[in-house]
Amino acid sequence: MAAYASDAVQSGDPASAPVSPAAGPPVAAPTSTVPTSLQQSFSVLDQSSGSTDSSSDGALVVYGVNRALAQTVDVDGVGPVTVLPGSSGVCIEVPDPVDGSGGSCRSTADAEADGLTLSVEDASGQDIERAGLVPDGIDHVTVTGPSGATDVPVVHNVWATEGGDASSVSFTAADGTHAQPIP
Question: 156-178 burial, b if ≥16 CB within 10 A, otherwise e?
């Protein structure tokens, strides 16, 4: 079963920060364009070949995400991973056979620094899929669990695997190795 996971942060525009830490991540009106910082860090969101302007109904959403600006990457053997840009963050989403979809979100700064990950479980609680988003320049991630480590290719900033017992993911960038747990 999947739900949205998010790193609550207290940075960026104070107008979009949560009222209290218990309230969750910042909310804002959906962005009408993909922010330049996201396009520069995640080329999958570079929409220079198409429209980058999309109006919304003005409802407040986590990190100002606008689904109309989303890009979907089909990962061979796993399926679609959708990248959703926002005014102060980015989310990824995958289909979930139990709940419809599962996703994860992070602030732009955190996603640019360490990427973001998610895992989807079936009704029995078994992990059936893990996915993530990493910055430009990363061609593979290393997914590690009790049974060992596996290199997973990155396609348009996205990686995904099915099954297994992974508990963390890492990648090496120009500034060193970045690792994070898989939720």
Answer: bbbbbbeebebeebebeeeeeeb
